[in-house]
Amino acid sequence: MNINLTLIGxxxxxxxxxxxxxxFVWTALIGAMEERQSKIADGLxxxxxxxxxxxxxxxxxxxxxxxxxxxxxxxxxxxNKRANQIVDEAKDLARAEGDRLKVAxxxxxxQEINRAKEELRGKVATLALAGAEKVxxxxxxxxxxxxxxxxxxxxx
Amino acid sequence: MAGxxxxxxxxYIQHHLTNLTFGHTDHGWGFAHNAQxxxxxxxxxxxxxxxxxxxxxxxxxxxxxxFAAKRATTGVPTGFQNFVExxxxxVDGTVKDSFHGRNPxxxxxxxxxxxxxxxxxxxxxxxxxxxxxxxxxAGVHFQKIVPSTDPNITLGMALAVFGMIxxxxxxxxxxxxxIGELALQPFGAKNPVVQAIFVPINLxxxxxxxxxxxxxLGLRLFGNMYAGEMIFILIAMMYGGGLxxxxxxxxxxxxxxxxxxxxxxxxAFIFMVLTVVYLSMAHEDH
Lengths: 156, 286
Known about the structure:
The structure holds 2 protein chains of 2 kinds. Chain A is mostly helical. Chain A is built from 2 helices and no strands. Chain A is rod-shaped. The mean pLDDT of chain A is 89. Chain B is mainly α. Helix content of chain B is 71%, strand content 4%. Chain B is built from 9 helices and 3 strands. Chain B has helices at 9-16, 35-40, 48-71, 79-98, 106-122, 130-137, 151-183, 192-237, 242-283, and strands spanning 21-25, 28-31, 45-47. In chain B, strands 2-1-3 form a 3-stranded antiparallel β-sheet. In chain B, α7 runs parallel beside α9. Classes of the chains: A mainly alpha, B mainly alpha. Chains A and B meet through α1 of A and β3, α3, α4, α5 and α7 of B.
């Protein structure tokens, strides 16, 4: 309980420890803490900004998607139209070609028929003449009778 | 009880309250063998135990916090780092609340006071007989392990604070301003004659007030810790009184120690806050 040099010793060591704390502890710690504080604040800011950007990007993407869908729908519609058109054209073409072929075939058939008729007529005339010759047993004036027979054949 | 069983109660208490004092005796330089010899050494003596534990604990504080400060990065703090930064944050907040001037020394000083005084007070929780008993094997007769129960320690710190109060008062206000603050307050008058009468009254009041600051600061801490230590010693005496009294003493010691955790923290905090407030007052220019 006596007051003695311990007092001075404690006083000096107190001042020393304050100096030590200021010089080697406080400055470094406070500096690091403040720096970290600003870093965290920056980080939070950046996160905010990033989430806003993300939202914006999502909106944009959605818009683009919608646009693309519309475009695709338009393209498909156009393609369908074009396809229908092509099919129609092809049908028309085919029908025309068919008609043409049919007409040609009919013409040929008619021609064939006519030719056959002509041939048949000739042959009938000849046959009729030969028959008549045989029937009459005589030489008929062929030129006179020929005309008669031809007329007959034309009437067949 | 420590050592021999022949001790009486008052001898036991006396023994526990005597510092290990190194100084000049009739037989030359050496340690005092009893309280009376220590008292006779006068001012030119050192309480080796108080100062030793005090500086040792100061080094514990300094090195632990230096260790943390070295590793301080802007990354994620963990474990001990967190604890140290929490303390720094707490002290910084307290200083910002009560100190309005601008002085880079105040906050580190407050941290030093808080942690160091807390560590010194913490020694109070070590059972009173353990370390003196262990020391007695090394031939050391006296050992007071709680530095803050030694008025030299608390008044030494208070004196340093007093020095800082004077230094900053003069630095901020100038010598004239400082003396004016002592002489022209709290009573003032427009009339020079009346003012001249007031000056000595003011001086007496203000100087007493000024001197009361370090004394109350040092003695408050000393008184609280001394009383706490005394109660621990009295409780420890009960261990010599048989099984029932000993068990009762054990319960009392536990209770008092738990309560004391509050006191040691509070006293360290009060010492810090008052120092900061006194220095804040020293920085204020009227």
